[in-house]
What does this fold into?
Amino acid sequence: MNKKRDWIAGYIMVAPAIILFLVVGLFTLLFSLWMSFHHVQAGSLISSAKFAGLANFKEFLLGGDTVMTRMFWNSLRNNLTIAVSMVLVVVPVSLVLAVLLQNVKWFSKGFRTIYLIPMVTSSVAVYYVWQGIYDPAGSLNSLLSAIGLESLIARNGWLGELNRSLPSIIVQTCWGAIPATLILYVAGLQSVDMQLYESAEMDGATAIHKLLHITWPVLRPITAIAVILTINGAMQIFDNIWVMTKGGPAGSTQVVNVLVYQEAFVRGSLSVANAMGWTVFLITFVLSLISLRALRSKT
Amino acid sequence: MSVRSISQVAIIAVLTLWAVFCLYPLVWMIGASLKTSQEVMQTYSLFPTGVWHWETFVDVWQRLNFFKYFLNSLNVTLLTIVGVNLIYSLTAFAVAKLDFPGKNFIFYGFLAMMFVPGITILIPLYLTEYYLGILNTHLGLILPIINGAGPFALFLFRNYFQSIPHEIYESAKLEGSGPIRTWLRIYFPLSLPAIATITIMNFLGSWNSLVLPMVMLTDQDLFTLPLAVMLLDTGAFRQWNVLMAGSLISVVPVILVFFFMQKYYIQGLSSGAIKS
Amino acid sequence: MKHKTSVRFIGLTVGLVCLLLLAACSGGSGNGGKPEQTNAGTSGNGTAAETPKSDVKLTMWGFKVAFDPGFKAVAEEFKKKTGITVETQVTSPDDAYSQKIMAASAVSDLPDLYLYWNGPAAGAFDGTAFEWTEELNADPEWKNGFFPAALNGQMVAQGHIDNWQKDDKASDWMKQRQIGEIYGLPVDVGTFYTVYGNAKLLKEAGVSTDAPATVEEWIERMKAVKDKTGKSGLVFSGNTDSVYENWMALLQNYMLNGEESFTKLMNREGTLSDPKNLPMLSFIEEMAKAGLFPDGMVSMDIDSADQLFARGDAAYALGGTFTYANFSAMGMKGEDIISFRVPAYEGSVYPDATTVPFGLVQMVVNGKGPHVEEAVEFVKYLTSEEGMILYANAAFDIPAVNIKDKSKLQPAIEAMLSSLSMEENWWSQNGAILDKYWSNSEWRLFHELKQKVLLGTITSEEAAKQFDETAAKEKAAAQ
It folds into this structure.
């Protein structure tokens, strides 16, 4: 009897979220999926659609369109590079900063507030500022020559040299992404019961022992979340690249979402754009599952 | 003890370095908004060498009718936040405390939605909204943003509820309170830290959202603030100082919210995300 | 604890709201200066009693802020004559506009009128656009008012039909097009292929300010400028595809090799590695090696490149007739700007090819909209002599109609108009072959290769080889 009541209540409570999803979520998803399996033309979308099977996917995955395939795999490679780099940078740096904040005696709240700034000011204007920093005549080059490292200057700008454009984008993205992870770690560290540390010390535990057996168990799930969110963010990166380089030069900063946007809105190939989007979804999903497993099994 | 203070100095040095790295672009933006547009393009110095044009801010605020766009952004963001908090804490409670078929499917299904790339959905979403008649309305922005915020909000709320001792639920049940009432009277108010976290995260996301308003809104009167700032960037060539000033103005509310809610944000995260 | 924090929170909110109210009282009342306007072109209409009434309101979308005053001027007069209101909306930059149009077309919710980039059936969206043949033939005087090249450039030709038939991405509707169909009327004309020079800088370097006879001579001059003043020789947008190719390189190839060879190249029967065609890439290589391009050009968009030239940091810039207005807006003085057609290589077959102006921007009527008749009427007025004079003067753009009474035009526009040749030639009549630049995907690769050559990471021979390989693959796939 109670169970039935639970059921009804459960469904009622879940209803608003589900209805919202059905209204703006489900139809959109299904339609997007449908478009990836058909050839659609803007202007007469449904009426002139022709079933295309896997043709759209073949276009960019298997060489249906040589150039687009080349660009897609290049983009994917860039996305993965960004994902790996970001995980390797954002997670450790955030952790170190969080630990430092925990152990500093003064100004910790002040530092913390300042560290939130990159996250808070994420807007087109900030991307322009970074473009300025990376400009041939910009702050970074000026700084390098000021401290005598002139040989490292990027003549065409840090966004204009083939081997420096992607790293520069990665640095800027990390700059903006670290605050979120940092705060996660700060929260985590603060949630550790101080008594546990004290009792461990009384038992004669070393710093490393404390780290591994008290701190890390708390930090591990945070790290898992952080890694997954970072990977997801890297696979979906768009705003800053679109404003700063549009994927150039020569495709060195080309990422999948930029390609999808170009296909959909500049070239009008809605079908292929949707197909690409779903492919990215699959890849991101699989990557996340893999990282989740990897982090979980670290018992 | 002296080792302690040396390491303190070292720690502070590192922290300061990072702080400078965080602050530099913001300070540059402030400096740029005080220069003239020409000056911005010519040098990359932090502050104007000549006159400091404070009037740009006032000019931007008044001439470009910022208050209207500010209200638009506020409207969209506030309604989004209320929606996210209500809908997903309700859902999360059900998933956390009740047992019904399909519960796990719903929970993990929502989580999976997080991975769908936003750009791909844009055109189908446009179509959906067109048929629903909510294109070019604020509602047309609010609904998809709420839906998009769902996965993480659901996750956070559920974990938060699970961290609250189950006895509270049991005793409420004994007193004859149904699940919905229990949620409303007890759990929702208790989850203030989680609400704060969700509020802050979604305030940021909704306020700075650019692509969605750009595609869905055609009526200029409905534009949100960041969109208005970006579209000021038209004409033969950009007026950098105006763009920077405008962006700074649109960032101020977010900074305020963050500053005041920081403490709760962290609290909410620690209880919600960590203790799972 | 709970209570205190909620009270504090409420207090904060109340405080913020008060601040906002205060702010509202002090500002937010200005209305002018907005680049995007949703007001109809009806401001300042005095003769209300004599204006014919109409409830019809048309919406027109555009993508160039500079042209909007022109359309508004025409809309104002149009309202006086007919009572029909035309409301203009500008969305900039180009890709924001493209996105908006694409989204609207996806749901078949395009406005009554919209500007689009030129090209036969471009922006027709599978038959949504209104077709003009009947209207044009019904009014020969109006039809003949257009510059022939401008109008013809918008018409479907055999070459286009051939292209669409072969393209499996083209829709059924596209494949059914007939010769002569026209889905948008040209609003303005102009050409690319223009090199602008900074007369002041050139004089300083002791270099002549008239047009160089060949590319080789031009390069020598640029070297002289670099030696004497340290400034770059040539600037153009390196991160926009099609600027170098479409505004300069393709024409130069045609001039160098003649129409047969050029057509072969575009049809994938010739190769880029062929010494006849290699200059397209080796020019960039040579210039880059001599340091004649500004640093970071590879990342510059069109505006940045124009700004660099306007600042005096480059001797020459690549552009079109429309670029002149940009330079003036950026503060360059007329007497400091010289211009000439892109130079031809030495030994060219057609070193003196003239560039015939073509329609740059077209106005499309939504044939499936609720007010097709009124929209058509507006466009007819816009493209009449009277309308075009109003437009050209307010938008500072060259009209697509051959104005008979040139005295009514602003002197600068009148001068530009007179300098354009209207006689058609092979180049102007074979737009379909040029269009292969857009439909053959190896040219997308060309853009990236060109950037790599510019940065010096590959040689032009190596780039040409990659291009040819891809072209061959595409050709094989198409069969």
